[in-house]
């Protein structure tokens, strides 16, 4: 499974939304119905799945599907 | 009594006074207890005492007013026991003085240990409790935080702050099945009140409808209740254990 697919799978699982809604530009709070605790848990789930640490300052900027994908790509490339 | 069997309880400031009794009561109810304080000797004594009761015990020295030490306390609890079911923020100090004479350090130290310490520990434990989808946070405030007390502006402010903090945390974490409540002890027989003069004690007793100072056990039992299944629908509340002093 690609990183994008894994990220989308986590989002569908944590937010309980339709996979079709999880488009790259979808905003977790505005479009996918997440509340602030949901976004915290989403970031925690990314950390666990990809075995990375995401500091609070970075977490605050991960507000859309694409932002999550981009951040994780960068983070994982940096650790190779 | 073993309704807390398998539950992990962290009690800050548990080397003496109310905190020590809270730790004891949970131990008697079968909990795995994490005790903490700044005095190494008293900490080891407490660890020995609780081990004799026959439950798993972890002792971690910490000044909860310092964020990294609070983090370390909670991390060690999780590493040792794998979870934290109950966090009792009991660590508290006084540095009494009339406000006009109160030094900056006296203000800062009390706010740091009492209020910031509570914040630090809650922050450190939230992630784990959210993963568990369950948790009980109990903060020890005081009647002084509700009524004020001449000579204790710093203590009163820190304890009143804990009340606002309790309610905010209750609202933030309720959706994850984490409750957060406060217990407000009145005048309880401990080292903290032992230093009060006889006149003061007598005039206090006159203000207390039930006519006596409280015991540490009076307070600890209410903390155990709030941590129990029976209190599952209670959150964001301040429960006074004060013999009717504040109504």
Structure report:
Helix content of chain A is 57%, strand content 0%. Chain A has four helices and no strands. In chain A, α1 runs antiparallel to α2 and α1 packs across α4. The longest helix of chain A has 15 residues. Chain A starts with a helix and ends with a helix. The mean pLDDT of chain A is 93. Chain B has 247 residues and is of the alpha/beta class. Chain B has a single domain, classed as Rossmann fold (3-Layer(aba) Sandwich), CATH 3.40.50. Chain B is 49% helix and 15% strand. Chain B contains nine helices and seven strands; from the N terminus they run βαβαβαβαβααβαααβ. In chain B, α4 links the parallel β4 and β5. In chain B, α3 runs parallel beside α4 and α4 runs parallel beside α6. At the A-B interface, α2 of A face α4 of B.
* Spatial strand order of the main sheet of chain B: 3-2-1-4-5-6-7
Query: How would you describe the oligomerization state of the chains in this entry?
Result: heterodimer
Biggest contact: A-B, 5 and 7 residues
Share of residues in helices of chain A: 55-70%
Radius of gyration of chain A, Cα only, in angstroms? 11 Å
What is the structure about, briefly put?
Chain A is mainly α and 80 residues long.
Which keywords apply here?
heterodimer, A: 0% strand, B: 247 residues, alpha/beta, seven-stranded parallel β-sheet, 9 helices, 7 strands, globular
List the helices and strands and how they pair.
The complex is a heterodimer of chains A (80) and B (247).
Chain A: H1 3-15, H2 36-50, H3 56-59, H4 65-78
Helix pairs in contact in A: 1-2, 1-4
Chain B: E1 8-11, H1 17-28, E2 32-37, H2 40-53, E3 57-61, H3 67-81, E4 86-89, H4 104-132, E5 135-140, H5 143-147, H6 153-173, E6 178-185, H7 191-194, H8 198-207, H9 216-227, E7 238-241
Parallel strand pairs in B: 1-2, 1-4, 2-3, 4-5, 5-6, 6-7
Helix pairs in contact in B: 1-9, 3-4, 4-6
């Amino acid at each position: 499974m690609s990183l994008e697919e894994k990220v989308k799978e986590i989002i569908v699982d944590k937010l309980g939304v339709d996979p079709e809604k999880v488009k790259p530009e979808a905003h977790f709070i505005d479009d996918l119905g997440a509340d602030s605790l949901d976004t915290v848990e989403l970031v925690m789930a990314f950390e666990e799945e990809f075995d990375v640490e995401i500091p609070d300052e970075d977490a605050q900027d991960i507000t859309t599907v694409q932002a999550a994908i981009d951040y994780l790509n960068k983070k994982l490339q940096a650790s190779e | 009594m073993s309704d807390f069997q398998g539950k992990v309880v962290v009690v800050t400031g548990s080397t003496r006074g109310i905190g020590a009794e809270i730790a004891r009561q949970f131990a008697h109810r079968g909990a795995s207890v994490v005790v903490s304080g700044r005095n190494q000797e008293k900490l080891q004594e407490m660890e020995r005492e609780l081990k004799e009761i026959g439950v798993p015990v972890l002792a971690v020295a910490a000044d909860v007013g310092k964020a990294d030490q609070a983090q370390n306390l909670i991390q060690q609890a999780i590493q040792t026991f794998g979870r934290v079911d109950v966090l009792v923020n009991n660590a508290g100090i006084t540095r009494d003085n009339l406000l006009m004479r109160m030094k900056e350090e006296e203000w800062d130290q009390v706010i740091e240990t009492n209020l910031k310490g509570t914040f630090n520990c809650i922050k450190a434990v939230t992630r784990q409790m959210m993963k568990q989808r369950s948790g009980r946070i109990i903060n020890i405030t005081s009647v002084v935080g509700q009524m004020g007390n001449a000579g204790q502006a710093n203590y009163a402010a820190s304890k009143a702050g804990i009340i606002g903090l309790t309610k905010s945390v209750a609202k933030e974490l309720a959706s994850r099945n984490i409750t957060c409540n406060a217990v407000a002890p009145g005048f309880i027989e401990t080292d903290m009140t032992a230093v009060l003069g006889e006149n003061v004690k007598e005039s206090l007793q006159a203000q207390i409808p039930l006519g006596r100072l409280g015991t540490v056990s009076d307070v600890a039992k209410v903390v155990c209740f709030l941590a129990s299944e029976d209190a599952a629908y209670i959150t964001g509340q301040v429960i006074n254990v004060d013999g009717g002093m504040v109504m």
